[in-house]
Amino acid sequence: MERKGEMSDEEVLSALMRGDLKMHEIERAVGGDVPRAVELRRAFVERKTGKHLRNIGNFSFDAEMAMRRNIENMIGAAQIPMGVAGPLLCKGDASGEFFIPLATTEGALVASVNRGCAAINRSGGAYAFVIADGMTRAPVFRANSVQDAINAVNFIRDNEDKMREIAESTSKHLKLKEIQPFFVGRNVFLRFVCETGDAMGMNMVTIATDEVSSFIEEHTSLRSIAISGNVCVDKKPSAVNLILGRGKTVIADVFLRDDVVEDVLKTTKDAMFEVVMRKCFVGSAFSSSLGFNAHFANIIAAIFIATGQDVAHTVEGSLGFTTAEVEEGGIHFAVTLPSLQVGTVGGGTSLGTQREALDIMGVSGSGSPEGSNARKFAAIVACAVLAGEISLIAAISARHLTQAHMRLNR
Amino acid sequence: MERKGEMSDEEVLSALMRGDLKMHEIERAVGGDVPRAVELRRAFVERKTGKHLRNIGNFSFDAEMAMRRNIENMIGAAQIPMGVAGPLLCKGDASGEFFIPLATTEGALVASVNRGCAAINRSGGAYAFVIADGMTRAPVFRANSVQDAINAVNFIRDNEDKMREIAESTSKHLKLKEIQPFFVGRNVFLRFVCETGDAMGMNMVTIATDEVSSFIEEHTSLRSIAISGNVCVDKKPSAVNLILGRGKTVIADVFLRDDVVEDVLKTTKDAMFEVVMRKCFVGSAFSSSLGFNAHFANIIAAIFIATGQDVAHTVEGSLGFTTAEVEEGGIHFAVTLPSLQVGTVGGGTSLGTQREALDIMGVSGSGSPEGSNARKFAAIVACAVLAGEISLIAAISARHLTQAHMRLNR
Amino acid sequence: MERKGEMSDEEVLSALMRGDLKMHEIERAVGGDVPRAVELRRAFVERKTGKHLRNIGNFSFDAEMAMRRNIENMIGAAQIPMGVAGPLLCKGDASGEFFIPLATTEGALVASVNRGCAAINRSGGAYAFVIADGMTRAPVFRANSVQDAINAVNFIRDNEDKMREIAESTSKHLKLKEIQPFFVGRNVFLRFVCETGDAMGMNMVTIATDEVSSFIEEHTSLRSIAISGNVCVDKKPSAVNLILGRGKTVIADVFLRDDVVEDVLKTTKDAMFEVVMRKCFVGSAFSSSLGFNAHFANIIAAIFIATGQDVAHTVEGSLGFTTAEVEEGGIHFAVTLPSLQVGTVGGGTSLGTQREALDIMGVSGSGSPEGSNARKFAAIVACAVLAGEISLIAAISARHLTQAHMRLNR
Amino acid sequence: MERKGEMSDEEVLSALMRGDLKMHEIERAVGGDVPRAVELRRAFVERKTGKHLRNIGNFSFDAEMAMRRNIENMIGAAQIPMGVAGPLLCKGDASGEFFIPLATTEGALVASVNRGCAAINRSGGAYAFVIADGMTRAPVFRANSVQDAINAVNFIRDNEDKMREIAESTSKHLKLKEIQPFFVGRNVFLRFVCETGDAMGMNMVTIATDEVSSFIEEHTSLRSIAISGNVCVDKKPSAVNLILGRGKTVIADVFLRDDVVEDVLKTTKDAMFEVVMRKCFVGSAFSSSLGFNAHFANIIAAIFIATGQDVAHTVEGSLGFTTAEVEEGGIHFAVTLPSLQVGTVGGGTSLGTQREALDIMGVSGSGSPEGSNARKFAAIVACAVLAGEISLIAAISARHLTQAHMRLNR
């Protein structure tokens, strides 16, 4: 089949221009020489569009590995500026001082998180706890009638041990925690909740779910319609994830003393509270938003890009709550992230820059015990989000937002 | 090149380690030599963490420009693998064949979009239309009473021309389209809706809003509490953006013929329809989701990373609807994206790889007339999202999802 | 009295028992003698079920009129205990002291509203304003393609005057304020917003919408699928009504002085505020609720039953916000009801007890100018809801809730 | 204190007019003669408003009992026209033919449900199943920190048996099924889920929750802020009730044969399906509604008024899904009601007309075993809702809605 080295670069390009060769066939046409294929594909796009793609060709990760795991029709890489905020003093499920790598093109973001870190550090650090941990996948099945649906779910409840056995046979990293059944008419949604070690785990859970689904189809009248029935819910904002959680559910809090609010944040606790109340609660309530916070998504997107997470999970990362409560001597701040999907193995985590970014926080690869690295990472992310919230809310409360942006020239 | 700084590299690092110098002060300490500052900061992080950050140091964009506009405390860049899907035949507000640059670490995504492009092309192309265009910012004000709030809003309504004049005086690219007033008790939210040329425009609108807010505070009893009151809504999922739109509201559709469904997508239109119905509608409805689609966010995140958009806007990009309707001879597919925030100037769009990715689609920089490039880009994005939806729904309907992921090694 | 019917009572009952006569045919069988038909139908149900329905037969309204307008297959009436709260001092769009008729079976409700009235009166009265007024109906249309949909909506925008003329020709009480077009793929929803005088107006708007829809179908490629496309939205909770309003949008507020909070409400303003914050905002946010309040629905259901409103509109009545803000000298309380559907003519408003209940507030029948009665009524309802919220939140804050219920024996 | 019989009617009225006697003091002033007190109070309102309240005085239930359980400041009763639909053939958790009592002032409603019953009966009856049963109450507690909150919840998990014992000691009818803990920052919501026999049970659960809360406050650092923290969620629309259920979760379905659709419903299954798709799913999705149905609330409000339920629970009754699926030979219709709160004892169920209405369905009073009557009633309600949905959707699909309303004169 392979015709190693038989085509010259120009032959490949000509064949592509003529349409005799498809973009995804280049690797084969050049005998599996991935770097060469990447260059030829980029050259082809340059020829078709008449544009030079010099920068896209500049990258340092292993193209072959990326083509196996992360990308198809590769032409190179996007470079996203990376900065660091911190150090950030964390307690609870992550303990120590951490630098936070943030890859972003939004000016002022790193500076803002950095200021939040200073406020937290001066207050003795932030506590973060992973209060729930379970990646989900929820296939949708069709029954013949509601009665059939109920019978099938009863069968599933009666055979949970068998289901667990099947699910856990698909991966030594996976533990099936629960199957949550939901009904809409004769549609049955089974929300599989699994621990997945240090991996974000969506594919792992999908494979397990698929296997269990086959068993269910064999033993009941249910017919699987879609391996994901949007009750998981993956990459769509939803109340089900807000309420029941998905991936890691993490909460972080800190008590900011009056002097920290004044000296570091240049505002008052009453002003900060008023912003949280009117913006994060009254405003979000009116908007029928699922995000009762200031800008979770900014911090999460930046960390996710830097560390090889699935960036589309920023969607779930935007869900959640920032709460503030004025007390004698200071203000209590907390962030609640119900649905944080992170991993330290798999996905994009082993690419060059991504692994280094995880290294900066000391969380790359598998933890010991398994799962501990991902949970530690989740706790750090929550503390970074807390830093970002504190800083932005302080800035808004001092009417600094626009000015800051202007000064930083955007 | 520059060497104004009096401190040697080691002196800088020592000062950093001792805490006598802060990370954001390095630029100043080395006389404004940005590349050197970036290297020193990275070296500092390496020293603190004991990790090598070789790959992060590898980038080809202009560090000085990035530090002015996009990042603080820069240590380098994240590299995200970039592939291309297409060409994709577009009609309507974007016309022609386009390659779609996608930066992602999620294997199978580019291949999936690519297959959707093939299905669309074989069906004669997809139509996309930008049906609304307006970036928003909604400050929250406090009135003394409901009556005061009403009086103030009446004043604002009576002085819309003046407000427009003030708003538009802040930028020649900005047009104030509307101020939407909303009340919650004595809280007043004013949602400013503006056209912002080819820029995504959030900062532009923020500046204009801030200026108008000052005028309002001078002439009414309203007191501005937060320049963003979460009725904008930026980077949080919300019904207000789903219903009223934010940024570009775009719809794309295509009629897939029976033979295309069979030959390219290897499934049937009835099976595809059933997945859309049970997953995208029944499932999302049960989840109280604002995303009635399969995976908008995947395609949007990948294009946004590639092209220098604000990636946290993936949150709003996940909102919207995929609809499918079986007809004689084929199936009608459409995607509705109510809240797509894109720009071809500003933000991260002028960085090296990002500009090239926009170049691939012929949409980098300002359009003529102004705004036309951003709208064309939005239309292309919608067609790419359509391609992604078609392909994934087809795959699910053929129970191919897990297998595809397994074959591609995840 | 009438005896036109050729069938005796026993003949009618026997025919019913045999199934030769249907329940809705009784009126005809007894020559249109409605009271007799009602009695026979009740007798039939008694015979079928073996139960005595003595109380259901006890009513004093005009059965014939009710059968024409309000009910079919009538067997009598339900009696709901009615109490009054108040007087309640109102200002703004309703001015004066009003007794509030409440028909309910939930013990403690009237007493609770009554206490809230006392607190409001002692604070100088509550202000209420109807800030928007428009009943809606939104048919859904199907277009052939997105492009067709856009063309059709452009036609509609270009012909709004004609639409208005058609709509307003269907009733002298109706004014078409706006047609709000929304797209989902090739589905077009046209949300007609109308003023409807003193009537709640849903049927009036439906008739007007139907007429305009016919015109649209004649002149565009749109095909009407459903006269209500659930974007109206009638009797389902929805963000669109929360944000854009439906029926009357009303806000009421009051400043409760410290002494009133202490003497009348037996609590503190800080305690009340804390309940509003944690229950009405944090709790409702977590629940993904559209009701950020304590118990709007209780007061609205009770007034609606008493006054002949469409009780299913309690659903929209439950939407909205209770806000509280602690100040020097007292606490500011407000309720925001975005979607209050009320009328003083039509529906059940002319039945015996219902008209009397409206009379108690001085708002039965048409106002002068038209619409003023319904708006005044809406303002009173909002003040009553405010009273109910204040009282319940005060009770909760004093941990009185359970005890109050126990003392009142439920 | 009591001055039995010492005041004449005129003395009472004069004292009321002067403000020397409050409305709620009349009972005491007339020696506890409730009927006389009711008349005097009504006379007072008549004098104050100058209106005759002849009809409101006409009622046949036991005023004394009502004043003890259901109402304060009573002046009489509202009369709501009551009709019956049916008989309706039910299977599953309610078995047999049932007449459905509907108290409403919305013309066409009874007729519409009646037609739906005919369609269901001709199809062999509808199946309904109560798939979950649990009334909820969720107090909100404040902890000192997130860590404290977690510790407290761990204590609660470890002591569930003790909690159960305390909860169940408050009523022999109550069974504590589960305590669902939720966190927002340092707020803890504990959602108590209880079976409550044949009572709707809200007060029963509140009392039990209050007792357990005291225990929790004694043994942890949690401080109860509100006995209801809006995560219950009572009488506010919410995703948490849609997803997790509250009260009864009921599903009903029926397979309508082609001939029934044609003969009884005068439409086609394809037309019905299209209405369900575009209205109940696409339309409701766009509206960000929690009600994916046509008019659940209408049927529920009418049954609730007739049978003495808490009518404000119509809010939760409006949540849920109507699904329709075209098949060979007919169309499958189902309604899913996640949150139906009903009881056959307590509340307004023992009032005269209300008990009779329950009697019509054979479900008044306690069931044997306990709870069976309430569940049977819930199943009947679901079948009636199904009938209402089928009929309205059929009518819409045949463009009959407006015409039907016009013909029936509203």
Let me know the CATH homologous superfamily of the largest domain in chain A: 3-hydroxy-3-methylglutaryl-coenzyme A Reductase, Chain A, domain 2
Largest sheet of chain A: 11 strands, mixed
Proportion of residues in helical segments of chain A? 40-55%
Rg over alpha carbons of chain A: 24 Å
What is the terminal-to-terminal distance of chain A?
54 Å
Number of DSSP helices of chain A? 16
Largest interface, counted by CB within 8 Å of the partner chain's CB: A-B, 134 and 135 residues
In terms of structural class, how would the helical and strand content of chain A be classed?
A: alpha+beta
Mean pLDDT of chain A: 95
Give the name of the CATH architecture of the largest domain in chain A. Answer: Alpha-Beta Complex
Spell the H/E element sequence of chain A: HHHHEEHEEHHEEHEHEHHEHHEEHHH
Percent in strands of chain A: 15-25%
- The tally of beta strands of chain A, per DSSP, is 11
